[in-house]
Amino acid sequence: MTVAEREPREIVAGLLADRRLLAACAERDMGTLFRLLNHRGISTRRIAAAVDITQGRLYDYMNGKSRVEKLAIFEQIADAFQIPGHLLGLAKRAEEVLDSASEAERPWLSPFDAAALALESALVLSDLRRHDEARTRAEHAIHLRESNRARSLALSRITLTELHLRCDDVEAAVAVSHDVLTADPNLGSIRVLCQLDGLHTALAVHRSHPPVRALLQRFDETRRARMLLLADIVPPPSKGATP
After folding, report:
1. Do 104 and 119 fall within a single domain?
2. Which of 76, 109, 142 is the last residue of a domain?
């Protein structure tokens, strides 16, 4: 298996004795950590997805323009890459979970499980313009995903909706979109918010269809609610920018 094929957590496991990684963790310098992972073959897309941040924010960290400050992001990094919590100054509880739970008992720690791989295959098939096959894979990803994985379910359903639109199946797209909007109202994810914006744009092309018009109104309401959840993470628009 090549470095490019290995999962991020496997690469991190091989770096736990690396002085550069240990120093980055001790200093809570996540920009350096992300650069180390990227140099070992993990794409910035995979890193951003695992940590639930945008690639733009990831580049800011990697280029030293900003630093990770929020506890929730440190915890997400530790969980996604299986970094012992004490290395990042986290509470012992997180480390004990990592040490005592078996792999089968903590599937949420791997962002690349069977459901995620099914979704990845759907995206590849879509790139190849094999949209009907891609829809089948996306539906399978949703079927595999645990019900308590709200963010992953939302992303999978957004992908399926986009695939329905590419197949000109507007009715199916509307049905799945409603599933997305009725998901966990407390889900605060920048990535989900960005993808919802893109989906809104794609659906707006079909605004003349009454069910789509009603759906777009729900999109606006949902976006406002989710922006409140992310108010302390998403910076306000600059002066003169369109909200």
Report:
1. no
2. 109
* Cβ-contact 126, 163 below 8 angstroms: yes
Q: What's the pLDDT band for 112 if we cut at 50, 70, 90?
A: low
Last residue of a domain, one of 87, 109, 131: 109
Q: What is the dihedral of CA 94, 97, 98, 102, to 10 degrees?
A: -170
Residue 59 counted as domain residue? yes
Residue type for position 146 = E
**In this structure, what DSSP letter does residue 208 have?**
T
Do 129 and 105 fall within a single domain? no
Q: What is the pLDDT of residues 182-201, one digit of tens each?
A: 876 666 667 777 788 888 89
Q: How many domains does the structure of the chain reveal?
A: 2
Q: Write out the two tokens for 75.
A: 């915890």
pTM: 0.51
**Per-state percent for the chain, helix, strand, coil, to nearest 5:** 70, 0, 30
Domain enclosing residue 152, as ranges:
114-229
Residue with more model confidence, 60 or 226: 60
Residues 176-204, buried b or exposed e (16+ Cβ, 10 A)? bbbebbebeeeebbbbbbebbeebbeebe
Largest Cα–Cα separation, the chain: 60
Q: Judge if 138 and 218 occupy the same domain.
A: yes
Q: What is the residue-averaged pLDDT of the chain?
A: 79
